[in-house]
Amino acid sequence: MQSSSKEIRLTMCITAGIWCISLLVFLLIGFKAGVSLVLIALYGVWNLVIFAGAYWRISRNINQVLGKVDNCIQSMIDGTPVKEFSATEESLLGKFQTQIEKLYYILNSAKDRERKAHEEISELVADLVHQVNTPLTNIQMYCSFLTQDTLSDKEKTQICRVIDSQVEKLGWFAEGFTKTVRLESDIRKLEPKKQPILNMVLSAVDQISLKAKMQGNEICLSGAQDIEAVYDRRWTEEALFNILDNAVKYGQKNMPVQIHMEAYDLFARIDVTNYGTVIPKEDYTKIFQRFYRGKNAALIKDGVGLGLYLAREIITGQGGYLKVESKKETGNIFSLFLRMEK
Question: What is the C-alpha separation between 211 and 304, in angstroms, rounded?
Fold first, then answer.
C-alpha cells in the first residue's frame, strides 16, 4: 500500500508540474493579449483548488479500496473470511475477491485432506499394534510353557500347534495391512472403465475355487452374463474375492455358494449368497469397519477383520456401494453394486 501511495503522489506531482508550466504559458499569452493578471491568477487558483480536491478524493477512495483488500486477505489468513465487496459486483475487485476465496477454500481443503490422511494413518498403525499384541503375547506365553520339563510330548505338540496358529494370524495381519496401505495410497488412482463383469467374476471364482473345494462348497453362477459396468478390474476382483473368501470361510461345509448377476438402470448388482450363521442386523454396518469381527465370526473362524473393509473401500471408491442382508435365517447375502455408466 505504501508503494501504491508513493506512485499516486508521484503521478500527482508530475501532473501539478505540468499544470504549473501550462499556467505560466497561459500567463504569458494572457499578458501579451492584455488580459488582467488578477483574473488569470484567480482562474489558476480556482483550477488548483479543483485539482487538489480531486486528488484528495481519489487518494482517499484508493486507500479505502486497498484497505478493504487488505482486510479481505487478512481475514482469510485468520481463518474467518470476510467479504468486503459484493459477490455479484461485475468489476475487477469483485472478481479478485472471488478468486481469492476460491484459493482460500482450495488451500483449506488440501490441509483438511492432509490432516485426515495423517489421522487415518495414525489410527491404522494404532489398530495394527493393538491387533498384533494379542498373538505376540500368546506366542510369548506358550513359548514359556515349552521350557517346562513336566510337559508330555502330546502337550508340547498341542502348544506348538497353538503357536503355529498365532504365527499364521500374524501373517494374515501383515498381508491385510499391506493391502490396506496399498489401497489407501492407490485409491485415487483407480481407473474405472466400462467393461464386461463376467471375466472379472470368473477370475475371482478361480482364486477361491480350491479353498471352496476343500470345504465342499460348490460355486454356482447364475443371472445375466452379458452385463457391462464401470469399474477397475484389478481392485474390483480383489473386492469380490474378499467377499467370496468370507462366504466360504463362514459358510456351512458341503453347501453351495451362489453368485447371481443382475442389471438395473443405474447399477450392476452381484450377489454372493452362502449358508451358515446369520449376521445379526446390529452388525450390518460394523462388519465393514477396519479390524472389526462380529461375535459369531470370532467363535467360528480366526481372522483379522480387513477383508470386508477393503471390499467396501474399493467399491465406494468407484462410486458403487456394498450391503449385506440375511437370507431367511439360513445364510447371508452380500450385494456388490457397480455403476453402469460413468
Answer: 18
User: Residue 96 corresponds to which cell in the numbers above?
Assistant: 479478485
**Cβ–Cβ < 8 Å for 331, 251:** yes
Spell out the residues 6+ positions from residue 317 whose beta carbon is closer than 8 angstroms to its own: 187, 190, 235
CA–CA gap between residue 33 and residue 336 (Å, rounded): 99
Grid cell 494413518 — which residue?
121
| Residue found under cell 465393514 | 288
Structure-block grid coordinates of residue 231:
469399474
Per-residue pLDDT tens over the stretch 29-76? 666 666 666 666 666 677 777 777 777 777 777 777 778 888 878 887
Q: How many other C-beta atoms can be found within 10 angstroms of the C-beta atom of residue 1?
A: 11
Q: Are 300 and 250 in contact (CB under 8 A)?
A: yes
pTM: 0.55
Cell numbers given for 88: 455479484
Q: 219, 212 in Cβ contact below 8 A?
A: yes
Residue (of 318, 303, 250, 301) closest to 278 by Cα position:
250
Instruction: Report DSSP state, residue 277.
Output: S
Determine the Cα–Cα distance for residues 280 and 334; give it in Å rounded to an integer.
14
Q: Which long-range contacts (CB under 8 A, 24 or more apart) does 178-182 make?
A: 179/238, 179/306, 179/310, 180/124, 180/290, 180/306, 180/309, 180/310, 181/124
Q: Which residues touch 78 (CB under 8 Å, ≥6 apart)?
A: none
The percent helix, strand, coil of the chain (3-state, each to 5) is 65, 15, 20
Residues 6+ apart with CB under 8 A from 269: 261, 262, 263, 335, 336, 337
